[in-house]
Amino acid sequence: MAKFVIAGKANCPYYAKAELLADYLQKNLPDFRIFKITQHPDMWEEWLEEICEENKWDHSTSPIIWRELLDRGGKGLLLGGYNEFLEHAQLYYGVTSSMTTDLMMVIAKENLQTHIEEELEKETLKDLISPLQVWIASAGAHVCYHIIPLLASGEVFGMDTKISLTLFDREQMEDCLQTLAMEIEDLASPILHSVSLCTNTEEAFHQAQVIIILDDSTSEEVYTLESCMRSRVPLCRLYAYLMEKNAHESVKVIVGGKVFVNLKTALLMQFAPHIAGNIIAVALGVEGQAKAKVARKMRTTSANIKDVIIWGNISGNNYVDLRKAKVYNYESAIKGPPGYYHSVLGMIFDSEWIRKDFVMMLQELSNTGKEFGGILGAHSIATTLKYWYQGSPPGEIVSLGIMSEGQFGIPEGLVFSMPVKFENGTWVVLTDLEDISLTPQIINRLADDLVQEKLVALGDILSFQPIQEESKDSTQSSIGQDEEKEQAVSDDSEGKFEDHQ
After folding, report:
1. Residues 12 and 26 in one domain
2. Residue 116: pLDDT above 70?
3. Are residues 225 and 281 in the same domain?
């Protein structure tokens, strides 16, 4: 089969003549195929120079005609211009062209008008797509590899929402980002409109509608808990400035990670007050860990455990509350219709396990970062984003780190994990839940932890002094700052992140 490409200026009369001849050959010869390319006269020379340089051809006029040899492999075979194409048609097919000069000029004029209209239509269609601008900060982090397939699957924002993904990190990570971008393109996701990189700080978060903040490392040497806290301030101040300067006014910011999640969220809110109401911290990772431990104890799957509440500091001193926790599809003597559930505390008769073993297991996970790797972190962020855009399951309690307004007796102005539900593109704090009030002692301990973190980070106090606990409730997990200290310093020692100042 003969496959020819005819390219030329849209207003070129010789392109019009070659086009008419090629149309005739394609119509009358079963094994003759053509592909047409027109370029605006203003763009023709640049386009021709690029195509000739790419294929090592020597041609300078319109049209340019070549034969495709893709079935045999290799580049196309240059035929030449209109005269060479006419000679080829006469020699091989016994066909010539008798188009008059006047007709050539008329068709050339029509071709130019058609080309302009087609380009306008393409631009209009391009504007109608308007993809969602999603940015990932610290995109070189390991967890990013697990987040992207979830975003590209269509489950987070919906299959009808196209996304434009931008990977942002320091300049030293550019090679890593390029490799990641190539892998993303290989996914061939139907909702992924484009993938781009950004290592220029001043351009960060341009027109961003969604920003995902991952765990970062700092360029400073950190050996103490206090230095870890202070090292977060410069980067959060920079990110906040760039968000308010470059991002879309309705940007949604979601903060995830294993270390200082509440602190980073609070700092971003302080330094970016105009978008503070749209910044949240992910608590579903800790919630998932607690559900998994309960499920193993009850010999069921963690998907059957619902309504575990995480209070306080997501990556520090928190309170894992099982008082509203439910287990569905549980094998017991009492059965019920679909949707029937048992109380978790009512089914676990080993109160000693809840009071000691359960607490110790969660402490160990916080201490080592074990089981909170890329998969759990990515799933927690993606699920929280999905709920934000599509709503959380009806009747289900979700833990979320948000700014306290005094709910549940929690001091105002603290980024505090508490029970919420998502609906209509926002969240609602579940203040109407019965029997979930916390004792003043627990609230004071959790609040003191968060207040001190921020004061130390900003340099208002020199050292962190964890509050001494007198007792522990049977349904709580107290993960102290001693454990967080070891994890935080360890995390910072794995890599260095420039403060971009």
Report:
1. yes
2. yes
3. yes
